[in-house]
Q: What sequence folds into this?
């Protein structure tokens, strides 16, 4: 979209984004999953700013960054496997916590019976969420394993 002149300008709501029209620029957008405490925020953002990344905002722990594409610069915010592994482990932790919250809510409402949404829709929704979380969990866990293997191979050389 940036190549067409539409640039991400605001993160709104759960899954809404605002774009503004401008001149075409080849931006690279990257995300980092990081819950930032107020006292660490300035240092965290300064680290990315020093590397040329513009912070666009935060949504549910996901930090949104962008920078113009350049041939002589990396388009990744993390270039070492250790940092990538740490990021993915933070993602896995959040997925497990979210699944626990959904399960707790399901158990809370499952005591109610005789209502269509509780008897049929809620268990169906929980199963769907369980499948989505399971697939996401195993994809991220597989990526961690790949990065750890690459890191181990590099260390033994």
A:
């Amino acid at each position: 979209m940036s190549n067409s002149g539409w640039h991400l300008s605001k993160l709104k709501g759960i899954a809404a984004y605002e774009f503004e029209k401008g001149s075409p620029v080849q931006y690279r957008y990257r995300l980092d999953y990081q819950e930032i405490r107020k006292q660490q925020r300035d240092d965290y953002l300064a680290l990315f700013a020093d590397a040329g990344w513009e912070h666009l905002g935060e949504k549910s722990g996901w930090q949104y960054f962008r920078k113009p594409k350049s041939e002589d610069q990396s388009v990744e915010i993390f270039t070492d496997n250790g940092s990538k592994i740490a990021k993915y482990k933070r993602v896995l932790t959040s997925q497990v916590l979210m699944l626990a919250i959904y399960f707790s809510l399901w158990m809370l409402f499952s005591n109610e019976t005789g209502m269509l949404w509780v008897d049929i829709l809620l268990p169906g929704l929980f199963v769907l969420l369980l499948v989505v979380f399971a697939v996401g969990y195993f994809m991220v866990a597989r990526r961690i394993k790949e990065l750890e293997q690459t890191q181990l191979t590099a260390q033994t050389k």
User: Anything to note?
Assistant: The two ends are 42 Å apart (CA to CA). The chain has a mean pLDDT of 85. The CA atoms of residues 33 and 91 lie 7 Å apart. The helical segments are 38-50, 81-110, 116-156.
